[in-house]
Amino acid sequence: MGIRDIARSLGYLSDNIELNFVLDLPVPEPKLAELEHWARERSRDYQAVTWSGLPPAAWREKYTTMITLSELDYPPEDRDPMPWTTERIELLLHNEIKQGRNLITTLIMDSSSAPAAFTTLWVTNAPHEWASQGTTAVLNAHRGHRLAMLAKVANVRRLAADFPQTHQLHTEVSVDNELMWAINDRFGFCPRT
User: What is the CATH number of the domain that holds 137?
Assistant: First the structure.
């Protein structure tokens, strides 16, 4: 009996079932180096840029483009895609940050400096003891280059540098997302109990 069968037997009808996982922090640097080396075997022509807070001016337009393209690749099921603008994204992020959440983002660009992938995570309010994985998306045209791993390694490094007191990173993964399961397993995420 699979996870969907069990969920349905308990009365759950959702098609998008997610399970919770946690990664203990800090991840030792040799482990991060190993993961980055594995990702770079297929992503040598890609560049990762990481920041905390709002997107820096130099990356605002590329980040907006990435959000727009990722929504075209993965249209939301519960609403029509809305046009993204830099102003709209910054307003949404600013409101989250104003509530005390800290954002870390990694944007991956291809060899022509076009956006290819991104990932985000949110750090809780002080004392910043845990963080929550946000969106990770790789555009269809760039799949197979291990960009999700490359982005997550950069984000975890930035998390350790900016918020060394953070002890856990939480994530939810759809039961259908086998690629993210494999990435998180390689990283060391464990089922949340």
Answer: 3.40.630.30
